[in-house]
TrEMBL record:
Its EC number is 2.4.2.18. Pathway: Amino-acid biosynthesis; L-tryptophan biosynthesis; L-tryptophan from chorismate: step 2/5. This is Anthranilate phosphoribosyltransferase. Its cofactor is Mg(2+). Homodimer. Mg(2+) 1 binds at residues 91, 225. In the C-terminal section; belongs to the anthranilate phosphoribosyltransferase family. Anthranilate 1 binds at residues 79, 110.
């Protein structure tokens, strides 16, 4: 590991094969946590490349458990986090809308790291258990076209990495790689990052990893979701082509709103916000979900434009289908936990 650290300290980028080796070393049992801290710290200082992120994501996914999911077209809408803006759980809320609108969603997530409530925190506050077995997660996916994969359950080798990330205390390459390590094979993806200077490189990572179609967004003010607050930077990945574009809320018929209008809180506060959104309560929270769901629907190919996606998202919520999807996930989760306790 020391050789890789010294090379990166000189400002040199690692080749794909070098990053594969370095990533595997990070996951070895006898690798010291401090060496992991040093390595990802110097990578951050140098600036990560698409090759380095893709290599790390490849290794992380290789160590994930095999879920034996049926063949299908699966999508994830997990973002990198780390924007420090304390918004509510936008992608988690949007996942119910996407699934209710016909997208098969395998949502990857974790507990809070840099936010007040991570995806798994708010799901548990809603009554969706992250402790259900991998087999139950796949059964939920088959039944409802939606499942939630709690990162520690599907990435058993991440414990030491988690310690290193907490020691650093700020976003690292693992934030960038995390959304790309879903153990389920994804053909499409909608993901957000908090670095406008890295949207094209991140789209290139998705291309390298074989996504047929995907969208990367960096929201106004660096939000890792599409924001109502201003101009959003996006890149569409379409069968190997990388197409950058910009988008505002008004472009798709939504009202602008400041970041402060979509502030979240703890897991229970965010669960209430999520529930209110799926009930169709008018607010910037709802509009933010419509915006992101619309982009996700366009990324999936279900609609031919983001404007059409926003309309479908609105219809899906107001019809009650998104709320029904939430209720079905809660019921399944609770029945699964009771069944596993009995066994």
């Amino acid at each position: 590991m020391r050789g890789f650290i010294e090379k990166v300290e000189k400002g040199e980028h690692l080749l794909y094969e070098e990053m594969i080796v370095a990533s595997k070393v990070m996951f070895e049992e006898d690798t010291e946590v401090q060496h992991i801290v040093d390595f990802i710290s110097v990578l951050s200082k140098k600036g990560e490349t698409s090759i380095e992120v893709a290599a790390l994501a490849t290794v992380m996914k290789s160590f994930a458990i095999n879920l034996n999911e049926p063949i299908g077209e699966y999508m994830d809408n997990c973002g990198t986090g780390g924007d420090g803006l304390n918004s509510f759980n936008i992608s988690t809320t949007s996942a119910f809308v996407l699934a209710a609108a016909g997208v098969t969603v395998a949502k990857h997530g974790n507990r809070k790291i840099s936010s007040n409530a991570g995806s798994s925190d708010v799901l548990e506050a809603l009554g969706i258990h992250t402790s259900i077995s991998p087999a139950a997660s796949i059964e939920l996916l088959k039944r409802e076209g939606l499942t939630f994969l709690y990162a520690p359950n599907v990435h058993p080798k991440l414990k030491k990495i988690g310690i290193a990330r907490k020691m650093i205390g700020k976003p690292t390459i693992f934030n960038l790689a995390g959304p790309l390590t879903n153990p389920i094979r994804l053909l499409t993806q909608y993901t957000g990052i908090n670095r406008s200077d890295f949207t094209m490189e991140y789209a290139d990572v998705l291309r390298i990893l074989g996504r047929k179609r995907a969208i990367v967004v960096c929201g106004a003010e660096g939000m890792d979701e599409a924001s109502l607050a201003g101009v959003n930077q996006l890149v569409l990945v379409d069968n190997g082509d990388l197409i950058p574009f910009k988008l505002t809320a008004t472009d798709v018929g939504l009202a602008p709103a400041p970041i402060s209008a979509i502030q979240g809180g703890d897991s229970h506060t965010n669960a209430k916000i999520l529930h209110n959104v799926l009930q169709g309560e008018t607010s910037p929270y709802l509009d933010t979900v419509l915006f992101n769901s619309g982009i996700g629907l366009f990324a999936s190919g279900i609609v031919s434009s983001i404007q059409e996606g926003v309309k479908l998202a609105k219809d899906t919520i107001h019809s009650g289908k998104a709320l029904e999807k939430l209720e079905a996930a809660i019921t399944f989760s609770q029945q699964s936990v009771r069944h596993e306790v009995v066994l």
